[in-house]
TrEMBL record, chain A:
Sequence similarity: Belongs to the binding-protein-dependent transport system permease family.
GO biological process, one term: transmembrane transport
Primary location recorded for the protein, binned into one broad class: membrane
Superkingdom field: Bacteria
Annotated ranges, domain ABC transmembrane type-1: 87-287
GO cellular component assignments: plasma membrane
Official protein name in the record: Carbohydrate ABC transporter permease
Compartments, as annotated in UniProt: Cell membrane
Record has rRNA-binding as a keyword: no
TM ranges: 21-45, 91-110, 122-144, 164-181, 202-223, 269-287
PROSITE patterns: ABC_TM1 (PS50928)
UniProtKB/TrEMBL annotation, chain B:
Cellular localisation: Cell membrane
Location of the ABC transmembrane type-1 domain: 78-294
InterPro entries on file: ABC_transporter_permease, MetI-like, MetI-like_sf
Membrane topology designation: Multi-pass membrane protein
Main localization, broad class: membrane
SUPFAM superfamilies, per the entry: MetI-like
Name the UniProt record assigns to this protein: Sugar ABC transporter permease
Cross-referenced CDD domains: TM_PBP2
UniProtKB/TrEMBL annotation, chain C:
Signal peptide limits: none
Protein known as: Extracellular solute-binding protein
InterPro entries linked to this entry: Bact_solute-bd_prot1, SBP
Highest taxon, organism lineage: Bacteria
Positions of transmembrane segments: none
One Pfam match: SBP_bac_1
Gene3D superfamilies listed in its UniProt record: Periplasmic binding protein-like II
Annotated keywords: Cell membrane, Lipoprotein, Membrane, Palmitate, Signal
Stored SUPFAM superfamilies: Periplasmic binding protein-like II
């Protein structure tokens, strides 16, 4: 793969304007970095403080390693390592549904974009419509359906609804319609490839970035989903980490004044939050490597 | 291999190819269709059925729609959502596209990559996880940006979350969590634009802004349309942001702010799933209409 | 390939598809609905203890508790190893999460899944749980009258609908007057016994020791401390679905005026005791603080970190000339027993133990027990802990003095106050001027929840 962009001579005819526009661009990017990152930095530091320090110290000061470990111990003490159970649950739910999502959404998005079949438009419309439907009223029908097939109380009661990921189907659809020329597939068909062969040997290799994108967004959506598991799962040891963080929140005195001696302090909640989002960030860093590389492949293979 | 997008590949062997493709297409979507029906179409139809019936299952016409519209919170929340939508859509479309273009122009690998990561980080902080963050960010007593808040004339948390500021606050919170993901998507889409197209623009003497305006943004059309459709629906269904501010402020700001909060109230506090369904259907109709306009005008469904 | 618009034939095909899709899903909905209708499973019920009981079996007793009450359930399990228990932790319906109600609605549709016994940190669960057919009547045979008689006077009012008791109170949150004993002594003041004295003292503190506080009016439960104690008829639940609201009577306005004066003098804070503002700037400025029983632990000891041997408790002031002492109440949890339980015996045993037994309520419970004999024991344990200055008899006295004409409806009074009065207060308006708007808002919310409102 040739990444020619770096070596290219850039416009050098109007240097002053060029410098000014670069400066402007740089400062816009920087302002937004501060906007996006500052609260996260605060959260990182919050986890290293005691509740007293959180209120009295400089918001962007570091507490102490001692406080950090104390917070960790307090956090894991909450219902005997409950947070580890929540993390494991989240990982299982998000991973299994991720696999199912990829297996179903990528071929579907591909077919919607690259093949003509009866009902294609209806499918596109139906997908869009259900994606736009507010969730509040879907919970009851979902619960009844899951109950009808006797899956209440099992992990499938949330994995299966998670696996339905219309957003990913559309991402794939748009990717193929905008980035992969149909002639490429036609050529492969001429060479005697079956339809599946075309998908497997031509489309899939070109689709790496969108697979990474769909996979990542599906993982995040499942990892951060709160309401479905909250309503669907009957046992506390089945809860994913989002619901767990929610229940920690309801044990913080400032949000729920009447909690007793078992109160969770705000720095512990901050730490729980950080633990809860770490997997998402790791997956992002992993997925990001595929986002760029594959996208260029299509255009440079000629 | 020739790859000019407009080459006439459709002349060859149309009938046989189409039927083979048609069968394959159906096979490719079959698994997804199963889930779509089970977890999308069926629940949605069920909700629509709820909207037109009462608790006993008897058909009631539009009475659920009328009753819910007469709720004393309905008109207010409608206004709130409309105002929020203006802020939200404008900020999202403008900033996401601009930031993606800038990141793409920056193009020096590691910096751009690091920035995209940093922009994305808040995206992981969904729901309950960010209550604490916003409680502290918006409280001048303990906020890292307290000097900024003081400059704007806010001295207490109560002043920051005054009713008049809410639409803007929710936009900031939603943008903070939601924009990063879209920036990644747009950035990826920009990478899809073939080199030769960009090169042609450059040879024609177009500068950076002209290239962006005449070449890149038109080629992002489908992605932007998709984003607007979803952002509109998401904004119309505003729920998480007011809910979390309501938690952070122990109910002072953000309760009963949006229509979607009202649906949750109907469904789970007032035991009126039928009323909730009616409001949901209204939101759905509005979102679908907006989507319809954009889809029709952008050729979104054309497999070109 | 599809540069051209799809042909008319294709279009018709699509719309036929769509019609088929619609028909298909309509059929499925009908199927599902009928399937659910028959899923009630009401066979084999016997009417006993005032309700139709399901056929009993000896499966595991399912108990839902919040994190704080987890200890109670675990302790019961340890003391009764023979009882099969499934202990589930949930948010206790805190912050108006409506979790219990949401789940019960779903279980009612599927006809199974209800927990046997539930703890809720809210005391208004009976207002919906009776309609939903979830809460079992407790005073029709399940819990002996002797036990029910042991609860503090009025403690179970929030559980009573039309004379039938549908839940048991876990803890009381009667309001008292907390004060910093050494500080009060140092300033040379005495504890006020009337609201008139209280106001005078507040004005004096503002002049002599500016910065010090005689109270806080910035929390969502502020009306439950001050206006309830002042017998303001803002929330008089007169029947299962009827409420009388009058926030502009003298009982309300005189308390509002008192608060307004002290707020203006700045000896009454409007930050809220759990705000960061309060913790940062006012934590060591508390001289007096009217507040519920749980302030002792949650606010002073854990929140503001006030050192031991400073905080003492006195009765909440009364208006001059009032003959019967009255106070307010802020929260307090309840326990419910499911009508659908198939282990009613085990459920009842647990319910009785958890609300009355000294082993938990008398020794371990964090809140003031609603069951009076356990409360005696609890007070001894608190006194022995050595945190408070002086004795805690004021708490015990207040437990039976909660004014009974402030009810516990389905709508949240705290949420209404927070949303309608608090923003105005922040903008510098007086509470008195906000009272009519408050009444209006209560009436609207009550009506939305199906209450008949008289004003």
């Amino acid at each position: 793969m040739s990444r020619t962009r770096h070596g290219e001579p850039r416009q050098r005819r109007r240097p002053p304007q060029h410098v000014a526009s670069r400066l402007l661009a740089g400062s816009v990017l920087t302002v937004f970095v501060v906007f996006f990152v500052l609260p996260v930095v605060w959260l990182l530091l919050a986890a290293t403080k005691t509740d007293q320090q959180l209120v009295h110290d400089n918001p962007l000061s570091f507490g102490s390693w001692h406080a950090l470990t104390a917070n960790w111990h307090a956090l894991t003490a909450f219902q005997d390592d409950a947070i580890l159970v929540w993390l494991r649950n989240s990982a299982v739910y998000a991973a299994i549904s991720l696999v199912i999502t990829l297996c179903l959404a990528i071929p579907a998005g591909y077919a919607l974009a690259m093949t003509e079949f009866r009902g294609r438009r209806a499918l596109l419309i139906a997908t869009l419509v259900v994606m736009l439907m507010p969730n509040a009223t879907l919970v009851v029908p979902l619960f009844l359906e899951i109950n009808a097939v006797h899956l209440i109380g099992t992990m499938w009661s949330i994995i299966l609804p998670y696996s339905f990921y219309p957003f990913g189907v559309y991402l794939t659809y748009i990717y193929f319609t905008t980035a992969v020329p149909k002639d490429l597939l036609a050529a492969a068909r001429m060479d005697g490839c079956s339809e599946f062969g075309v998908f497997r040997h031509v489309a899939l290799p070109l689709a790496t970035p969108v697979i990474a994108l769909v996979g990542f967004f599906s993982f995040v959506a499942n990892w951060t989903n709160y309401f479905l598991p909250y309503v669907m799962l009957p046992e506390s040891d089945q809860m994913p980490v989002q619901v767990g963080v929610g229940s920690l929140l309801s044990n913080v005195p400032s949000f729920n004044p009447t909690v007793g001696a078992l109160a969770i302090q705000r720095p512990q909640l901050a730490l729980a939050t950080l633990v809860a989002i770490t997997p998402v960030l790791v997956v992002f860093l992993f997925a990001q490597r595929f986002l760029v590389s594959g996208m260029l492949a299509g255009a440079t293979k000629e | 291999m020739t790859l000019t997008p407009s080459s006439a590949g459709s002349v060859r062997g149309r009938p046989r190819g189409t039927s083979r493709q048609s069968r394959a297409g159906v096979a490719f979507v079959a698994g997804y269709v199963l889930l779509l029906v089970a977890f999308g179409v069926l629940p949605t139809c069920y909700a629509i059925y709820f909207a037109f019936t009462n608790a006993g299952g008897a058909f009631t016409g539009f009475s659920n729609f009328v009753t819910t519209a007469q709720d004393f919170r309905f008109v207010d929340s409608l206004g709130h959502v409309a105002l929020y939508l203006v802020f939200w859509l404008l900020s999202l479309v403008v900033f996401v596209v601009v930031l993606a273009l800038l990141l793409h122009k920056l193009s020096s690998g590691p910096v751009s990559q690091a920035l995209r990561f940093l922009y994305y980080v808040p995206g992981a902080l969904a729901g309950a996880a960010s209550v604490l963050v916003w409680l502290f960010m918006l409280d001048p007593t303990v906020s890292p940006v307290s000097s900024l808040l003081e400059t704007l004339g806010f001295h207490t948390f109560g002043e920051v979350i005054a009713p008049g500021n809410l639409a803007l606050l929710f936009t900031i919170i939603a943008f903070w969590t939601g924009a990063g993901g879209w920036i990644v998507v747009m950035y990826g889409a920009l990478n899809n634009i073939p080199k030769d197209v960009m090169e042609a623009a450059r040879i024609d003497g177009a500068n950076g802004w002209q290239t962006a305006w005449r070449v890149q943004i038109p080629m992002l059309r489908k992605w932007i349309v998709y984003m607007v459709i979803l952002a509109f629906a998401g904004g119309a269904q505003l729920f998480v942001e007011p809910q979390l501010l309501s938690l952070a402020s122990t109910g002072v700001a953000g309760r009963d702010y949006s229509l979607n909060q009202l649906t949750y109230d109907f469904a789970f506090q007032m035991n009126n799933i039928n009323g909730a369904a009616a409001v949901s259907v209204e939101l759905l109709v509005v979102s679908v209409s907006v989507a319809g306009v954009f889809v029709a005008r952008s050729g979104f469904f054309d497999a070109d | 390939m599809s540069v051209y618009k799809p042909s008319a034939a294709q279009e018709t095909g699509t719309s036929r598809r769509r019609a088929a899709l619609l028909a298909g899903c309509a059929a499925t909905v009908l199927f599902t609905v009928t399937a659910c209708g028959s899923g009630g499973g009401t066979t084999g019920t016997t009417t006993k203890d005032g309700f139709a009981q399901a056929a009993q079996n000896d499966g595991a007793l399912t108990v839902w508790v919040d994190a704080t009450r987890m200890d109670a359930a675990k302790q019961y399990q340890a003391l009764h190893p023979g009882v099969k228990m499934d202990i589930v932790s949930y948010d206790g319906d805190a912050n108006g999460s409506n979790y219990l109600q949401t789940k019960v609605q779903l279980f009612n549709r599927t006809g199974k899944g209800w927990p046997d016994v539930v703890f809720s940190s809210q005391n208004n669960e009976a207002s919906w749980a009776v309609d939903a057919g979830f809460a079992a009547p407790l005073n029709k045979g399940l819990i002996p009258d002797a036990t029910l008689g042991g609860f503090a006077k009025g403690a179970n009012d929030v559980c009573t609908v039309d004379g039938t008791m549908y839940c048991l109170r876990n803890d009381l949150s009667q309001a008292v007057l907390w004060y910093n004993a050494p500080l009060l002594k140092k300033f040379g003041y005495t504890v006020p016994t009337t609201w008139e004295e209280y106001q005078a003292l507040g004005e004096k503190v503002a002049k002599e020791h500016p910065g010090y506080l005689v109270g806080d009016a910035g929390d969502s439960f502020t009306p439950e401390i001050y206006l309830w104690a002042s017998k303001c008829g803002a929330n008089h639940i007169t029947g299962p679905k009827s409420v009388s609201v009058n926030t502009t009577s003298e009982a309300c306005t005189k308390m509002a005026k008192l608060l307004d004066v002290l707020i203006k003098d700045k000896s009454m804070s409007i930050s809220g005791v759990f705000s960061t503002d309060f913790a940062k700037n006012e934590a060591d400025k508390v001289l007096l603080m009217p507040g519920p029983a749980w302030y002792g632990g949650a606010v002073f000891k854990d929140g503001l970190k006030t050192p031991a041997k400073q905080i003492a408790v006195a009765p909440i002031p009364q208006w001059q000339g009032d003959t019967s002492p009255s106070t307010g109440n802020v929260g307090g949890g309840t326990w419910l027993l499911s009508k659908h339980s198939t282990h009613i015996k085990a459920a009842t045993d647990f319910l009785k133990w958890v609300t009355t037994d000294n082993a938990y309520q008398g020794e371990k419970a964090p809140g003031f027990p609603a069951y009076a004999p356990a409360a005696e024991n609890w007070l001894k344990a608190q006194a022995a802990s050595g945190y408070f200055a002086g004795d805690l008899t004021a708490l015990k006295d207040a437990s039976s003095q909660v004014w009974s004409d402030w009810g516990s409806g389905q709508f949240s009074q705290e949420a209404i106050w927070a949303a309608t009065v608090k923003p105005g207060l922040t903008q510098g308006k007086t509470i008195e001027s906000l009272l009519p708007g408050w009444q209006d808002s209560i009436a609207k919310y009550a009506k939305a929840d199906g209450y008949k409102v008289s004003q």
